[in-house]
Structure formats: structure tokens, C-alpha cells
Structure prediction request, 879 residues.
Amino acid sequence: MENESIKKLKEARTLLKEWNYELRPIEKGYCNRTLYINISNNVIESKDVTPEMKEKFIGGKGFGLYLLWKAVKNTTKWHDPENEIVIGTGPICGITQYPGAGKSLLVSISPLTDIVIDSNVGGYFGPFLKFAGWDALEIQGKAKNDIIIFIDGTSGSIKIEEAPLEAIDSHVLAEQLTEMYADDEYDKRNISVVSSGKAAEFVRMGMLNFSFYDPRRKVVRVKQAGRGGIGRVFRDKKIKAIVIKNKATKGNLNNPVNKALINKAGLRLHREIQQYDDKQNRMRQVGTANIIEIMDEYDLLPTHNFKFGGHPDAKKIYSNVFRDNYLTQGLPDGCWYGCSMACSKAADKFELKTGPYAGQKVTVDGPEYENAAGLGANLGCFDPQFILEANFYCDTYGIDIISFATSTAFAMECYENGILNSEITGGIELKFGNSAAVLEILHQMARGEGFGVVIGQGILRMKKLFIEKYGADPNFVNDIGMEQKGLEYSEYQSKESLAQQGGYGFTNKGPQHDEAWLIFMDQVNNQIPSFEDKAEALHYFPMFRTWFGLVGLCKLPWNDITPPSNKNYPPTEAAKVPEHVENYCWIYEGVTGEKLTPEKLILQSERVYNFQRIFNIRLGKGLREHDAVPYRAVGPVTEEEYKSREERYDKQMKELIGIDPTGKSIAEKVAIVRKYRLEQYEKLMDAVYERRGWNKNGVPTIEHLQKIGMDLPELIEIIKPLQ
Amino acid sequence: MRDKNLFEEEHITSNICGGFPKMRLLAKIEENCVACHSCEEACSNLYFKEENPLKAALRIIEANNDSDPHQIITCTQCGACIDVCPAQAITRAKNGVVRINKKMCVGCFICVSVCPENALFFHDDLQEPFKCVACGVCVKNCPTEALYIKKIPDEA
Prediction:
């Protein structure tokens, strides 16, 4: 019998549009059509996937960028109705035999960066979208009132309904909708919900949650498409949720050409994880949180707005603290079927102490490393209870934790430096370590009030405001504001690794580590000493990692476990994990029937990567000037920072720069290091641009586009005047 | 014909062997095995209607020399596969036998990778893995009494 409260929600609905389509099997990993929904006029269409799309863009993020390019104008801003949210899948997405094959890839024009943002997310929505018959979902327009879009893959129908009574916050809404659309308890596993939260109505760092039902815990779990404010676009379009429903998941729904190749790769990796994970990264025990202590130990844990790389109190938030006191474990915790790496950790029956849900016992998805590092170390709040509470509220309110933590850390440093005061913050003592203040900022974001909303606009906009309104020194806030292209830095210290400064700086979407993470290769193991070595790494790894987003895979099972065969390779080759690259070639060929070599894989990525770079140029960024980074990411801004690593910096000054530090004041030494490091960064930029086939201004050359088969007229038109 | 009762028994979702008054499992005496493969043929015939040792829920690995016995890979019903199944498709039945519910299975093969006996099998023609349910058809077809059904507690 239908639950009374669900019945009420349904009765208040108004049907705006119903549209039926023919269900048909997936062929070799592709549905060969994409779904277009315009919520301004409620037009729904099926678009054919062309052979050119498959050849040049592969799928996933590639399809997303292709569709978004056609949908927007050069002048389109995030809140214009023509801006879209595109959710792409990819040909490998949805297989169940290889770990990490359930990713969705989102693109949109970002409210933080004003260029394209891409964000990948787990949960069941991506595979279900494909099983329902669509390689990608394109949403354009703006609804008048709050709507819910329902894609029914069991019958081939789509409904757009006004939905006034459903909750906004994800932990309530995803439960309501899973309950509403599932036939029974067992059927809940066939539902996935995309939703955001109340704060996404007010802050630019709004995020989206993608759900899956956890049959063991009997709760709806959520994974986050965090970066770049797509949740803000979602709520600006007045979408409450997108719900998808399917028939039972089976292992062959992609209709792969050669299942044996997929099975071979899958079992090889399953067995490797089973044998080595406990000795290597313990992804199954603690998830990505396993690196909290490693980052702390190697001076890489961003602390107090990236001033320092660790803290004596950091041990209070090491991974075992969460494992022993909060996480409910011993069960597989994958965010898609077949992921034996199973890193989706959760704390159950966690009692909230603050906010509108105080007293409720909830399931917290996390903590991921980024959450613990950002909320814990970067804000100086070394309290696991606080980290989980803030983690939960960021998720349910629809706030990207990375942007939240990095932005709040910036505001805290401004407060401690007298740029802000309690009058400006409305009485909030915004000091490092004040976890109550952080939670209040969070709740303000969801209420759309107070200084929380100011922080929620992100660092780029805060810097402008603080300079113009509060008289902040522009040089200082530009040095310490950890954003680039408008996106906040993710939670790693790049200060002591030149390669990672580029790994963050030369990214398409802004400083997120999903393109390159070279700190250990560079800083710790010194495997890429020359500019040429670094440039090669900053070509190969961003291209290689782009590929995950084209086909629908997760990055983690690539190098968060390494096979014994890795010891047969020299270090720079071992970093590529050749055996796993072979797995990827097998599964790609297994699904599509097309042979793939490691070289062809890089070419596939290079095409889409250059397309995205030119998309940025089209929208007004993507040139050399936009690849500059805040100095905090490069070296010590303040004397306090210099002193914290004085011995190291003095030694480097003598050995690398050739200047004797003896007798020099700290201020003089800060200036010397700064001059040297910024020159190094520029030299690295030259080397990387050349390796990527770009000119000195960071623009892909026409010859390079011809070489990689991407000399499409619409791209040439953009870059020709910039050659 | 498949024995219907084998597949429609009430399942109990626990991997704890203790507390089961009776357990049934396929046991082996490797010294008796002559590697005639009759057991594999009987098994694949019963469940997949073909004589294909790669589709049998047990496996005979022939010894390299005369002095070693042939190896018989069988399921000990230990239940290591139960907890790792993301679809909860693997459960222990009242008689202690661990079963895979094919309807619920999503074919990820994580269970295959964790089996300590390598006794959870898959075949590229099939979407779901398969395992021994201690039905005893192999025992009946073994000419040398290398296989038998063990009941716990021992009723012999």
C-alpha cells in the first residue's frame, strides 16, 4: 500500500509533458542516440549519434562537450536558458565485470569559471541512462516552477511534472523519490535520482548528488558531481530532480562484441585487488581517506589555507580514526556493480548536532580524502565528528566540499589578517579551527543569508569584493586566494612540486587534480627532473586521464592498486601502470569490437582535450594568461610560511638558485625565491605548450589539429586569429 | 531435468555456518581419482545440457606425474562469496549449501575472484558464475569413489 505522505506528494503534481520512445538494445556499448529535453517549452527529442561523434568524441565528456558546443553561443553565461547540463555515459559505462565502470560525466557552463566545467560522478544514474536507451542526456531551458523529470526505462516514457511539495535537500528527496518510483523494496536498486539541495539556490558552488540504493544498509546513498557549480545551474533551471528507473541490471546489457576480453581484464583486476589492496592503499577499508596520513607525513596536506603541509593535530583525523569509530564496514561498498575496489565508505546512524536536521540519525557518505583534508586541515578543524557533520550537510545542501573548504579557508585567512572582521561577517569569528563558525557558514548558505552566501560565491568573487569594498591589498588576496580560472584548488599542496604546479595550472576546467597528480613522481621520487621530463608527464597523464571520462570509467582502479608486473618497468613507465593500460585496451575492444592501442587511446583523448581548450578560448579563457596560478600554489607568500620551511628554502637557494642566504632578511629571501619559482613556472609552461602542440599563448596550432584529426572548421575559425 | 527443489529452497541470508543443524557438501578423496572426468561431464550435462568440463561446477586438474594424485577442485561451502556480492545474490540455504540466485546476479564475478578454493566458475558464454550445490550427480557418476556427499554432523 502506498505510503500516505508519498501519495500527497504525487497528488500535488501537474503533468507538463509525457513523451514515449521505442526501447531498443544497446549495440557494442552505444545506444546511438542522445536525449534532448528543453524545460522552457517542454520539447523532448531523440538525436542520432553520428559516426563522426563516435570517432572524434568517443562518448561521455566528449559527447557532452560536442552537444554543449552546439547549444551555446560565444556569449552564453551559466544562467542563460541556452546553457545546458549534459550527462554523458561512454561506451564502457555500465559493464559490471571491471571495477569502476559506472561513471557519469557532466558538462555545463560554470557559474564559478564562466567556461565549461566537467565533473565525473558515480552512482547508478549513468549506467541506467544507457540501459534506458540514451548515450547522453541534454537539458536546456528553464522551468517556470520546480519540476521533476522521470525517465522510465522499463516502458520507454519520459515525464516532466511540476512537483511543488517534494523536499529540496538530497538526503530527504532521494529517499522520497526512490520510495515513490520503486515497485517494492527489491526494486529500489533499479532507481537512481539526480538531485541537489537548498544551498544550490544561493551559492555558485552548488553540487549534484547521484544516488544508488544500498540494499544492505537499506538506505539511499549519494555520490557527488562536485566541481564547478553544476548544482547551481540545476536549481537555477528549477529542476528538483531527475529520476531514472530500469529493469534488472545484467552483465551483458552493453551487448559487447567480445565478452571474453572483458572477463579476462575484470578477473585479473578483481584478483589483484583481492590480493594486494590490504597491503597497498586499503581502499576497501578506508577509501580515499587512506592518504590523509601520507599527505601529512610528506608535507602535502593543505593546512590553514595552504600555508602549511601538515599539522601536529592532523593525527586526530587519520583514516583509522574514521575506520575505528565511525565507518560501518565489512561489506562491499562500491558505487556501481562490480567495483571490487569498493571505496564508497559510509558512517551509519550518525547523529547530527546542528542545523535543521539536528537530532536525526543519518548515513554520511564519506569522508573522502578531499573532505577530511579540506574541512579538517585546511580549516584547522581537526575533529572527525565535525568533519562528518559538515560532510553530511555539504552533501544534502548541494555544496561542493572542495570549493567550500578552500573558499572558507581563504576567508579565514582574510579574517585573521584583518581584511574581514566580525562586523562584516555578521558576528562570526572566522578563525582557523572554529568549527562552530564553519557549520554556521554552511547553514547560512542553505538559508541564503549572511556571510555564508558571500563565501558561497567563491574566491574569485570574494577577492573582488574584498578589494573593492573592504580595502584589501590586491597583491595579498591574489597571492593567497587559491583559485584559478574561478575554480577553487582541490586539496593538495603543489608548492614544492613544480610539475604539480603545472598539473593544476594547465588544466582545462581549473585546478582539480583529476588531470594530473605528479607530486610523488616529481617532489618525492625525483623521477622527472628536467623540463622535458615534466612536460612529457604533463602531456601524457592529462591525456591518459581524460580517457576515463570519455568511456565512463573511474580513475581510482587505474593506480590506486598496482600489479606485481609494475616492477618490471622503469619508474616513469611504471607510473603509467602498463598492465592496467592493457586491461583498458581489452575492455574497450571487448565492448566496441574496435582494437585499441595505448597510442590510439592517447589520440582519442587528445582530440577531446584540445576541443575543450578551444571551447575555453571561445568562451573567453583558455590562453596563457589564464594558466597563471596564485603564488600560494608556487611558493611561500608570507614570512611565516618561509620560516616554516626555512632550512629547505635556504638550502634550495644555495644549491638551485646559486645565492647564499646568509645574512639576508626573511623578506629578502621570500622575494628571491618568488622570482626564481615564477620563472621556473613560465619555463615549464613553454615546455608543456610545445609538447601539447600549442603556441606560446597556449593556443593549439592548426598543424597540431591536423595531425590529430581535429581540424574541424568551427575550431579553426576560433583559433586562426590567435596563431 | 533439473531437480526443482535444488533451486527453490528457502534461502537464508547468512554466511555463518554455525547454527545449521545439518550441512551438506561435496567432499573428495583425491587419491581415488583416475581423472576420467565423468564427474565434470555429468555436472555440465545436468546443469547446462552439454558435456563440457569448462561448464562443470567442479574441476579435475590432472597431475603432472604418476606419483602425485589428481587434484579435485570443489566448493567447501565456506561462504566467502556471500559477503562480497554487491547484488546480494549469493545466500546460504537451510542445508548449508551456498547458492547463486541467477535472477539477482549482475555477473560481476567478484565472487569468482575471492573464492579461496577457486571453485566458483565462470564461462564466457554465460552471464552468471556457477558453483557446486552438492546435488551429488558427480558422486553417482564417479567410478572410483573419489567423491562423496558429506553430511554434518556425520550421519555415517
Observations:
- The beta strands of chain B are 11-12, 23-28, 59-61, 71-73, 90-93, 98-100, 147-152.
